[in-house]
């Protein structure tokens, strides 16, 4: 919430810095708890003492005690009258259940491992304008990204796509679906599960991610129906083939100069009456928007991914991209979660 200027004091500004600094430490505290197995152990055995946890996980008990006390102070843990610890409500799902749609361990890790490392390089990058793009950052990075977008993938496959009018029927009748920027294939696997009669094709330009995606497809034994292809959409697909085109956290990753071409190729690959579903982040277009709650998350992504070379699209750019690609029908726009934009439009 924005404070009116005349309510601001030096003390209130100082308090905000301390609050953000506590947030920084708390994210590291959570990350440590996940990596050491503390959150999982507490989810499995609520009301454990630090001694119990240390014994179970082979950790130094006084350090675990400090971790628990700090987490209690930050309201991540609750305690019983004997001073034993348990996770506060819902943190078993959010911090200890990696397959639950609300799990945020991956997003925390993206901050402590990827963003923290990138931020340390920014002084130099601001002087030289250098970037370190998504592609080629390696397997650990690709996995961290896939983990951080897990919840969004589940929501897309189980809710957003099935709710689009007539789409589920088309896909159940043996239609085809294209995922642009399929990365390590988590969403592609979910889509294949949600629409078991549909042919599912993923396209990406990151070979490391595609290698992981292909392993998942092979080990599920669905390579006859599901494929992860490398290259541009035009090279990897045929025109008028797909009943749905899906992009989750991809549009803002595509270099702005090639975005019109990618969306045009995607529109060309769609059948008439097919749906394009884009789940992405919308950069605020005005000063007023920059302070609105639904834009805080994309605003921060714009900063966090600056060094990746990413430029988040504004609402105006998103709409122009669709229009210029011939997707001139109504565009459904909603905001979900912390500030993800869902755009859905049908090919005329
Ligand atoms: C943030 S990841 C999202 C991956 C996946 N959709 C997920 O939710 O886990 C963005 C993906 O878009 C891919 N990408 C970027 N530009 C692309 C392009 N021009 N064509 C296809 N994929 C692209 C990246 O390589 C990366 O795998």
Structural class: alpha/beta
Question: Can you tell me the overall shape?
Answer: globular
Residue share in helix:
40-55%
Number of strands: 9
Give the averaged pLDDT, no decimals: 96
The run of helices and strands is HHHHEEHHHHHHEHEHEHEHEHHHEE
Distinct ligands:
S-adenosylmethionine
Strand order of the largest sheet: 5-4-3-6-7-9-8
Ends distance: 42 Å
- Residue windows where pLDDT falls under 50 for at least 5 positions: none
Number of helical elements: 17
Percent of residues in beta strands? 15-25%
Rg is 22 Å
Largest sheet, in brief, is: 7 strands, mixed
Structure, explained:
The protein is of the alpha/beta class and 348 residues long. The protein has helices spanning 10-36, 38-44, 50-57, 61-73, 91-96, 105-119, 122-128, 139-148, 150-160, 167-172, 186-194, 207-219, 233-236, 259-269, 287-290, 293-304, 315-324; strands spanning 77-79, 85-87, 176-180, 199-204, 226-230, 242-248, 270-280, 331-336, 340-346. The strands form 2 sheets. The chain has a 7-stranded mixed β-sheet with strand order 5-4-3-6-7-9-8. The chain has a two-stranded antiparallel ribbon with strand order 1-2. The longest helix has 27 residues, at 10-36. The model has no long low-confidence stretch (mean pLDDT 96).
């Amino acid at each position: 919430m924005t404070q009116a200027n005349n309510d601001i004091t030096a003390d209130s500004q100082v308090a905000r810095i301390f609050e953000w600094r506590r947030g920084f430490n708390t994210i590291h505290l959570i990350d440590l708890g996940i990596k050491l197995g503390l959150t999982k152990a507490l989810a499995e055995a609520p009301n454990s003492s630090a001694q119990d946890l240390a014994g179970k996980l082979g950790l130094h008990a006084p350090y675990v005690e400090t971790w628990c006390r700090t987490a209690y102070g930050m309201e991540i843990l609750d305690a019983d009258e004997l001073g034993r610890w348990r996770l506060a409500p819902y943190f078993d799902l959010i911090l200890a259940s990696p397959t639950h749609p609300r799990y945020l361990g991956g997003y925390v890790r993206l901050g402590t491992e990827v963003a923290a490392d990138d931020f340390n390089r920014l002084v130099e990058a601001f002087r030289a304008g250098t970037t370190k793009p998504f592609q080629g950052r390696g397997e650990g990075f690709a996995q961290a990204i896939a983990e951080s977008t897990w919840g969004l993938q589940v929501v897309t496959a189980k809710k957003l796509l099935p709710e689009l009018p007539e789409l589920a029927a088309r896909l159940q009748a043996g239609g085809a679906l294209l995922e642009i920027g399929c990365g390590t294939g988590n969403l592609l696997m979910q889509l294949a599960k949600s629409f078991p009669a549909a042919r599912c094709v993923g396209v990406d330009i990151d070979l490391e991610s595609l290698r992981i995606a292909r392993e998942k497809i092979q080990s599920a034994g669905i390579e006859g129906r599901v494929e992860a292809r490398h290259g541009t959409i035009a090279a990897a697909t045929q025109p008028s083939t797909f009943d749905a085109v899906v992009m989750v956290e991809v549009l803002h990753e595509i270099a702005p100069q090639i975005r019109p071409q990618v969306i045009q190729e995607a529109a060309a690959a769609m059948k008439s009456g097919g749906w394009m579903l884009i789940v992405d982040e919308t950069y605020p277009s005005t000063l007023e928007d920059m302070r609105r709650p639904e834009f805080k998350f994309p605003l921060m992504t714009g900063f966090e991914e600056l060094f990746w070379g990413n430029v988040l699209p504004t609402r105006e750019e998103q709409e122009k991209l669709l229009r210029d690609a011939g997707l001139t029908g109504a565009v459904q726009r909603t905001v979900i979660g912390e500030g993800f934009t869902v755009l859905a439009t049908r090919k005329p």
